Each structure stands twice: as structure tokens, then as C-alpha cells.
Amino acid sequence: MKKLLIFLFLTFFLSGKSQKVELKAVTDSSQIFKGEIAGVPITLQLHYAGIPDCSLYQYFVDGWYYYDKYQKKILLTGLYDYGKLFLYNFGTKQKQNSKRLRELINSPQDVEKVVEIAQSLAPKESILFGQNQTRENPITGSFYMENKDNPQSAKLFTANDMIYRYNNYIILPNHKRINTFDIINQYGGNELISYISEEKGNRVLLYFDHTSNLNACGRCGASEGEKGYRVLYFTKDWNYKHYEEFLTESCLENIYDTTKRTSKDGKTIMYKIGKSDSSPAYTLTIDIKNAAVKKLK
């Protein structure tokens, strides 16, 4: 009987513990990719090395690649530009010409000329990925060697070659996890508020506060950002279904006239959002206990 009670207690404890939901924010500045050149498997590692001007969609990268069979690292430097990768090996002048490349690229206009600028520094090898601007897996590219006119094919086995990433991992029961970078957007800034399990499925309530534009020179790039709530919906087994988003402030949507009132017990928050250029006035009721948001116009 005593052993049975202990077993039931442990079963209840572990079952309750397994239902815990967490959010972990991790900013990545380095990525490892698998791929191939001319059908030969390679491994490529790149890390963020600063921006030429004001956009986090355009930045310098440093790193290396090797052929998996030999694992001898070949140094690379270059540029990430809105999904396109320009990578160069300058042989014995790698350090010197990497520095020179960055000195010559200081604006979006310079970024557009990166191939021309790099070629003036006589690279021994050039690898270009994502030039067709399609978001497919694998990402296709070309490999060029010095003094050879015909490029070889290159591939990265990923649909996203972005190096600098704001990851928000939502740790779910049953050893599952999702990244808001993959299912919502690349901006991060999410905070876990609450979650609930019901007969029809599970919900997770997030508050978010992130910049409006990763390009600081673009529209709303210097704004206080986008703010609001997201409700993520899951099956009973914690398989992700979809999410809803509710803005309380937004530069992109021109939403600023907002008032906030919290209930005495702290379980409910009400926002009154004034009329904006993009939508009529509305009210949001945030039910923290039930991980729900109700919108009334």
C-alpha cells in the first residue's frame, strides 16, 4: 500500500511538472550550416561581424568552411544582404583584404557593389548563395575559383541563412519546443504571461515589445516599437496550430492613443485603443488566468 501511494504521488508530481511551459530568449550571432559544393558535402560556420550602415538585414560575416571528408578549414569573410550571402577567401591575404573589404563598404549603395568591390581584391575563392531571392530549402548558389570562368554548383541545406537571430524558444510539455523566429517573426521581444490546458487544446499567452524595423534607416526604424499580446493555440498534445496577434501600440500601424487599466486582483488588463489610420477604435481585455484575449470594437 505504501509503495502504491508513493507511485501515485510521483505520477501526479511528474505529470504536473511535465505541463510546465517556459520561454527562453537566446540571441544567436553564429550559425553552422551543412551543404555541398559540386555535390561534395561541406560544413560552413559564419558569425556576425558588424553592420556597414544601419540595417540588421545587412551585415558583415566571418567564418570558415571545410569539406567534410578532410575537415581542413578554409577561412571566409563577406556579407549577408537580405538573405543573400557573399563569401570570399583571399588566400594568404585573408586578414588584410577582409579588413579592406569592410573599409570599402559603408552604405547600402556600397552593399549593392559588393561583388565588384570584392573582385578588386582578387579573391582565391568566392561562394554566392541566395542570389535568386527564393526562400527554398536548399538555398542554391555558385562556387567560383580564381582564374576559372565556369562556376560549380553550391547548396546550403536550410531555408534560412540569416546569421544574427533573435530566438525566443517556447519550451513545451512532452519534450517539445518552438521558436517564435520560425513561426511568428524575426524580432523576438516576447515574454511569457500565462498558459492553460483545456479539453479542446492548450493556449499560451505572450506579451511582446520589439522594434518596428530592423533597418534603423527605414520607416519606424527609430521608433519605440510594436507592442501587444499574442495567443498561441496548440492541440491537446501540444502540437502548434496557429496564433493571433493584438496590438496595443504600433508605429507601423500608427497606434498610439492607448489607455491601460489593471483589475485589483491583477488577473485582468483592459486596453482602450483609439482610432488609427488603419483601424477603428477597439478595446482589448487580457484574461491572464485563462491565457485569452477578447477584442471588442
Short description:
With 297 residues, this protein is mainly beta.
Biggest sheet architecture: 8 strands, antiparallel, barrel
Query: Span between N and C termini?
Result: 59 Å
Percent of residues in helices comes to 10-25%
Residue runs with pLDDT of under 50 for 5 or more positions: 1-18
Order of helices and strands: HEEEEEEHHHEEEEEHEEEEEEEE
Alpha-carbon Rg, integer: 24 Å
Strand order of the largest sheet: 2-3-4-5-6-7-8-9
Overall average residue pLDDT: 92
What is the percentage of strand-forming residues? over 45%
User: Can you count the helices?
Assistant: 5
Indicate the overall shape: elongated
Query: Given the helix and strand composition, which structural class is it?
Result: mainly beta
The count of strands amounts to 19
Could you please describe the fold and organization of this structure?
A hairpin with a 2-residue loop joins strand 5 (74-81) and strand 6. The chain has helices at 2-18, 94-104, 108-112, 114-119, 180-183; strands at residues 22-28, 30-37, 40-48, 58-67, 74-81, 84-89, 125-129, 139-145, 152-156, 165-172, 176-179, 190-198, 201-210, 226-234, 240-249, 258-262, 268-273, 282-287, 292-296. 14% of the residues lie in helices and 46% in strands. Residues 1-18 have low confidence and may be disordered.
